[in-house]
User: Fold these one by one.
Assistant:
Number 1:
Amino acid sequence: MSDGYYFIGTVTQAGSRTLPDAEPIRIAYNDISPGYFKTLAIPLLSGRDFDRRDDAGSPPVAIVSEKLARHFVGDPVGQRIRLGKSDLREVVGVARDSRYANVKDAPREVVYLPLFQARPDGFWYAPSFEIRYAGSLPEVLRRVRESVERLDPQLVPFRLKTLEAQTQESLVRERLLALLASCFSGFALLLACIGLYGLMACIVARRTSELGLRIALGASPTQIRRTVMRDSARTVTIGALAGLLAAISAARLLASQVHGLDPTDPGVLAGSTATLLLLTSFASYLPARRATRIDPATALRQE
């Protein structure tokens, strides 16, 4: 929930499995209070949630994530888990997997600890408070400030934001990279269209006498246009196929950077290819149209 902390540790015992010192399970952990899972709508798959009894005077307990539960033999509820070398706890629940740090990460092994049992002497970090609300955000924020002021007028709430806003902020770098990539892609597409236009204009200029002879022999403007467009379509199709194969090959390198997305999505590839074909066809249409206006007499005199 906080973008300022990332708590990590190790598990050296999972139920009846004692792990070698060189091969512990690397985990993230979080200190939470009762009601955390309900507030964030994270379902408990088995066992119970923490409650007020889980304080410094009660036996140490923990809740594990679904992914960590797979390291146990059987249902982990009721079994023991050892954090580090000496922190032995009883597992009282299993929570469904969720992304721990940000939306880009894949779910990982997480251990949840009772807040007041884990830190009975205070906190070295600033805890976050999560509130599930209904209604307008300004009204909720006003009521939060009033509640804090009633508790202690000297306390000042800070960094108030919704999870939606926090998620958007966490994607700023990705959005910037996507914007830059889109700009470069658009520029590359523009260059491709300009290059194709120049290529076809050069081909039409070199075929002036041929096209003029065709017109003199009775070829209609539609036939001339079709001839030029067919040559252009052949060039564009070969280039599109080569680019498509290169894109699929490069997508394998990007697979690790786009978690949850398919870099070889057929819809995206088909849409990109169709856009390229459409724009390049338009770029080649102008030289084809110009070819239909060739004066046969002038073309034959040039020959």
Number 2:
Amino acid sequence: MNRTDAAWAVGRIYMGWPTRLLTRARAYGSDRVPKTGGMVYAINHLHWVDIPLVGVLSPRTVYFVAKSEVSSERKSTAWYLQLFGTIPVRRGESDRDAVRRMRREAAEGNVVGLFVEGSRQRHGRPGEAMPGAAMVAIQEGVPVIPLAIYGTQFWKIGNLAPCSVAFGEPMQFDGLPKGGRGYKEATAEIERRINVLFDWLAEVHAKGRPRGLTPPV
């Protein structure tokens, strides 16, 4: 167990139970996550609570990609995020250091967590996916697991709406070229899968979130 795994093990105790309680967290399809090997979580983003929600429901440690402004606000914040393996990225520009770090973590067998739209979506459903997840997966030959989050668009202090995460089947893009065309094609499929999972979760929530359901492929 490395330092990041150890930090997550402790964090799931002091952050995990409050997160589960306050969001009424529920996961569907988490057994689809391979126990070993590098991969990319491609996740939609609706609220800041998405991060601890995915973190506590993921069966594996997640190296989240986060905007660099967060880690630069305070030294203590930067240290804390670094402890949990967070990968800082400069939004709105080409950040080669962040890309290299994402690729390295995936190549070393870790899970890279990417919110594919690049920022929170204020309109309540997944937005257009950016090519980062596809690029890392194609360059390093690792799978992408699409994750849809539902319920956090309604969640706030005073209105603790139930929140759920659906894990899709691992997606492989071995046949696509390492370049813009391949990234574009893979990204379109990732976006489609996230939306399918999101709409499925909306139906599950409308039915009262029964347990034991399997998300669509």
Number 3:
Amino acid sequence: MIDRPRVDLFCEDRGHEQFARALIERIADKLDQKPSIRTRNGRGGHGKAITEFKAWQRAVTNGYIDHELPDLLVLLIDANCIGWAQARRELEQAVEPGIFPRCAIGCPDPHVERWYLADPQAVQEIIGIPPPSDPGKCERHFYKQLLRQTIQNADQPIASLEMAYASDLVAAMDFFRAGKNQPSLKHFVEQIQSALQQLC
């Protein structure tokens, strides 16, 4: 059993990183694991995250960098309106399974802020009011604005970013309810659970 699994995380930005960390830690805690999470990329947006991952993977493959391979590789990159299943397939094709046998891929559809709002009861518990009904839109920054609006309507402070609520929202989240609302989140949770359970 690996009680302190090494997890390497590639994602787009701080909002993705905070959500992924909170999710991994919550799932690992139920398995009595204390993961060591190393963020390999957490800035620069969608394109840079994918480019950086491919370059890093090549460098590891060719021995250009001395790197201790993770027990679990986690990629969290927005689907950006192409659909989460297609976005996931594209990322799966980019991963070398011989190097990373355990991999969890998350593709929020269309953006990660939709996952923050996936469980309205958790949002009400942590922020103070439920979010508006999800209109199912695919517009740039729409869900980020919806999350910010919910926080402001609850008269909660936005200290620096809306993403400061990530760990509290993930801790309060009912994964079944959230996954029913957001199938892409359900798939990501199941992949992380399965990978960490294999390490047990």
